[in-house]
Amino acid sequence: MNPLSEIICREAAQRGVLPFARFMELALYCPVHGYYETEKDNPGRHGDFYTSVGVGELFGQLLAFQFAEWLEPLRIADCGLRIVEAGAHDGRLAKDILAWLQLKRPKLFEQIEYRVIEPSPRRQKWQKETLKSFAPRVRWFTGFQHASRITHHTKFNGIIFSNELLDAMPVHRLGWDARNKKWFEWGVAVDGEKFVWAKIQSSALSPQPSALESVLPDGYTIETCPAAESWWREAATVLGQGKLLTIDYGFTAAELFSPGRMHGTLRAYFRQNASDDLLANVGEQDLTAHVNFSAIQAAGESAGLKTEIFSTQSQFLTRILEKTLREKSSGEPVLPKSDGGGSEDGWTSAQARQFQTLTHPEHLGRAFRVLVQSR
Ligand SMILES: C[S@@+](CC[C@H](N)C(=O)[O-])C[C@H]1O[C@@H](n2cnc3c(N)ncnc32)[C@H](O)[C@@H]1O
User: Fold this and answer.
1) Mind listing the pLDDT tens digit for each residue in 79-117?
2) Which of the listed residues 33, 48, 53, 89 should we mutate to test ligand 1's pocket, taking the one with most ligand atoms within 8 A of CB?
3) Distance 172 CA to ligand 1 centre (A)
């Protein structure tokens, strides 16, 4: 057993069967040994989680263009604007966004404070290294409450956003007991040197009620993520005026209850391969589940936000690209060239390739959804 497995074993010995959400939290975020604590220092893992950020700079540039458009009406001389990113990992997306704003919207750039919400000291260190040239514009906080305490403001104006944060939050795994017509929770127990699935008899959790429940087959499995819903509600609460945006792979509640998804959406990624063995390779494999966008949308609306956009990544980025092209026709290119090459219309081959990967339905275009809410 590796040191992380031993930590989980000790907790299981004290508490009995652990909810899967607790197992996932420790496997991904346990200080020192968790998957996301060690990911950057482990080159063998490269590609275990491949996000739009890794495709290239274009993703951040398109987001920056959209952010600038959203922030422009909020520019009030005596009021600072914030762009707040959570789940920034190694800071690459922040760098792409800040570099575009500095180059293309210098006045706005000077008015922005870029905040990174990052609970892990180790990841903060990676981010500070990546963002050192933007140091005067960036501030780090461990959470929204920490930011409120330090700045003495409970609310701020601007944009709060994340890319693939909610799908990395710990989920509870529920099974359907068709005979008794009720949900039970799957937990994790220890059997010798191995982790095994065990039912938690007393769990009060159940997914949002669905008309399909009465016809679900025995053992039908689904995940629920109270952590993502409460994170979103908290983000909505601290947003004064502006937008709250997330990009994640996920479904609406109706899509989640698909008869074809008997075993839920939880997956492990180990050395670039998807695996159903969620309890193996503890701390060495990524664990992720699809986001229930209906639940997230309802959480934001319950905190007073209005839903503005719920679309695929493809539709969202294509709309932004169209706007950049309209702006370009009245001036210089909006998207800076980075590979030196390029056609006469300013669109380089690298940018074209990146855009295709980000928007093609077989790549990242369809599975990824974008939710934007506003106040
Ligand atoms: C799948 S990675 C995505 C990283 C990056 N946003 C990207 O798109 O490449 C998820 C990241 O969210 C971070 N994370 C998880 N829970 C968090 C929380 N409550 N606050 C801030 N970051 C969190 C993880 O540590 C990890 O760096």
Assistant:
1) 689 999 999 999 999 999 999 999 999 999 999 999 999
2) 89
3) 18
Instruction: Report the nearest atom of ligand 1 relative to the CA of 54.
Output: 9
State residue 60's pLDDT score: 97
Which distant-in-sequence residues (6+ apart) come within 8 Å of 200 by Cβ? Answer: 17, 19, 184, 185, 186, 187
Ligand 1 near 320 CB (within 6 A): no
User: Are 300 and 233 a contacting pair, CB within 8 Å?
Assistant: yes
**164 dihedral zone (left: phi>0; alpha: psi -120 to 50; beta):** left
Contact at 8 Å (CB) between 355 and 321?
yes
| Interacting residues of 191 by C-beta distance below 8 A, sequence separation 6+ | none
Q: What is the pLDDT of residues 193-250, one digit of tens each?
A: 899 999 997 777 888 767 777 788 999 999 999 999 999 999 999 999 999 999 999 9
Tokens encoding 262: 């008997």
Nearest CA, atom 14, ligand 1: 87
> Residues 299, 233: contact at Cβ < 8 Å?
yes
| Contacts of the segment 29-37: beta carbons below 8 A, 24+ positions apart | 29/120, 30/4, 30/283, 31/120, 33/2, 33/3, 33/4, 33/7, 33/283, 34/4, 34/283, 35/283, 35/284, 35/285, 35/286, 35/287, 36/89, 36/120, 36/123, 36/168, 37/120, 37/122, 37/123
